[in-house]
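To: structure desk
From: M.T.
Subject: fold request, one chain
Message: Could you run this one when you get a chance? Sequence is below, nothing fancy, just the single chain.
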Amino acid sequence: MKLVDIQNAIYNKIKNHFPTYDIYTGEMPQEFTKPAFFIHILPIATTIESQYHRKRRVNVEIRYFSQHETHLENLEMVDQFNEIIDSVFIVEDRKLMIDETKTNIENNILSLTFDVEFTDSIEETKAYNYQDYDYMEELLIKEE
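Reply: Done. Structure tokens follow.
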């Protein structure tokens, strides 16, 4: 699964529920029309589980810029997001679990963040083959 697949799935989910709102990914423009969303995807960690599998953790941040910048609009959006982004998030043919969603409101901008973890396959041609290399036999460490 590619990071852009996650971004596109979130974009489409938001666009389906808020078709008239602008949605930005990547760089936020200096001027934009409110209400609007900004989606930011950040890879946090990749762990090699085996020769053919890696576990990935990705942070998703969705910022909401309300029409009138009121606290009430932000609270209503939190409730709507809890219904839209449920505990299971579908990206293409995969179902990703969302264990925890964090909410923050700063300068009347709502920020929702959550992490998703998933396991990916490593292509066989790109997989590290441990049998192709000799083990280190002796390591000398010079202490000063």
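Reply (cont.): The mean pLDDT is 88. Let me know if you need anything else for the meeting.
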